[in-house]
Amino acid sequence: MASSCCSFGATAEHKFNAKRAAHDLVRYRAKGPNRTTLMLRDGLTEAHQVHGSLLDIGAGVGALTFELLGLGMSRAIVVEASTAYLAAASQEAARRGCAGATQFVHGDFLSIASGLPDATVVTLDRVICCYPAYVPLLEEALRHAQLCFAFSYPRDLWRVHAALAVENGVRRLASNPFRAFVHPADQMERIIENAGFRLTSRRQTWSWCVDVHVRQSY
Question: What pLDDT score was predicted for residue 177?
Answer without folding.
Answer: 86
